[in-house]
Amino acid sequence: MARLYTNDLSIGYGEQLIVKELSIKIPDKKITTIIGSNGCGKSTLLKAITRIIAPQSGTVILDGENISKENTKLLAKKMAILPQTPESASGLTVGELVSYGRFPYQNGFGRLTKRDYEAIDWALEVTGTIDYKYRPVDALSGGQRQRVWIAMAVAQETDIIFLDEPTTYLDMAHQLEVLELLQRLNTEQGRTVVMVLHDLNQAARFADYIIALKDGEIVKAGNCEEVIHYDVLKKVFHIDAEIGRDPRTNKPMCVTYNLIKGE
Question: Taking the complete model, does pTM exceed 0.70, yes or no?
Fold first, then answer.
């Protein structure tokens, strides 16, 4: 049985229902990507699974427990989330920002222990940001900053990491750098990674499992062969897609597409 899953999850804002009775299972120690058009409920779903917002009905179950009843610090030792637009880190050094990932392990005095400092340096090492430790976060490039935010999540030492569009605002090289880092965290450390991505070919290349949403409901969930498919993309994005093969991975990829008109 999956460690993390939802049962009939419905999420909305006021009277507007965004996600409707959604039941999904997140594969353990795999990379799961959520795709779909703007406004389909991708980010809303992530926020509900990580308890940032409360669902109107349904449950999120982690390790057999309803997360709505879980102790906050205990939950923060199991899952970390990097939002689409992280809060400003103005005035902080990289090391100071990454130290915030140790919050779930701090006692009432809020002092960092030797173990905390070891975890911070380890997170900086595995994300390739150790050289920036004493630099202001504001002085870094977009790609460097994104890796530092991921380092903060890594320092939290959770088995599951959620990321909402981690490649937004990054150029192609920095997008690849971030995705390869997440892939290494998955393959080398067994972290479960769940992220929202807009780029279909990035989803196909890096994800083991893809969930395609439309209007808050699942159109298709499965591996990239099952989801990066003409019929699925037509229904989800209303496009006429030409599906080919990535010459480097042999996975399906969207070569080109047209909008479908008149239907």
Answer: yes
